[in-house]
Amino acid sequence: MRCFQKLRKLVALVSLAYAFCLGVGAAAHGGRQPIARKNHGYRAASLSRHGLNLLRQLARPLTLPEDPLACLVETLLNWITRQLAKNQLLKIVG
Predict the structure, then answer these.
(1) Tens digit of pLDDT for each residue in 44-78?
(2) CB 47 within 8 A of CB 35
(3) CA neighbor of 31 nearest in space, from 12, 52, 54, 65
(4) In the chain, what are the domain boundaries?
(5) CA-CA distance, 94 to 88, in Å (whole number)?
(6) Is the pLDDT of residue 92 over 80?
(7) How many angstroms separate the CA atoms of 48 and 25, rounded?
(8) Which region holds residue 13: left if phi is over 0, alpha if psi is between -120 and 50, else beta?
(9) What is the pLDDT of residue 4?
(10) For 57, phi and psi rounded to 5 degrees?
(11) Is 57 exposed, middle or buried (0-12, 13-18, 19+ CB in 10 A)?
(12) How far apart, in whole angstroms, are the C-alpha atoms of residue 4 and residue 81?
């Protein structure tokens, strides 16, 4: 990629996605779905991977909308959407 602005947007979006997955994983780990530990004491997955797995699970059609984690993720996405619309900080497309 030669365009610095496009590369900057790509890095920003990847960073936001990672932070979102990390936040969901940390919230789930502290709540109902802690990460299992292996025999050597380390976690079976990182917090960001755990969050990504949960987001993938929530995106499936059979997920109940009453699930507390689904409500938390939906609330967080609505907040991010409102902040972007309010501040108009980033024009993602184009």
Answers:
(1) 888 888 888 888 887 777 766 677 777 777 787 78
(2) yes
(3) 54
(4) 4-87
(5) 14
(6) no
(7) 6
(8) alpha
(9) 84
(10) -65, -40
(11) middle
(12) 25
What does pLDDT average to over the chain? 79
Say which residue the tokens 């590369």 belong to: 7
Q: Are 22 and 47 in contact (CB under 8 A)?
A: yes
Task: Identify the pLDDT of residue 8.
Answer: 87
Q: How far is residue 24's CA from residue 47's CA, in Å, rounded to a whole number?
A: 8
| Residues comprising the chain, all counted | 94
Tokens of 18: 């990672």
Pairwise CA distance, residues 59 & 48, whole Å: 17
Let me know: does 69 contact 54? Beta carbons within 8 Å. yes
26 pLDDT band (50/70/90 cuts)?
Answer: confident
Task: Find tokens 């059979």 and name the residue.
Answer: 62
And the tokens for 13?
Answer: 């979006």
Which tokens hold the place of 72?
A: 């938390």
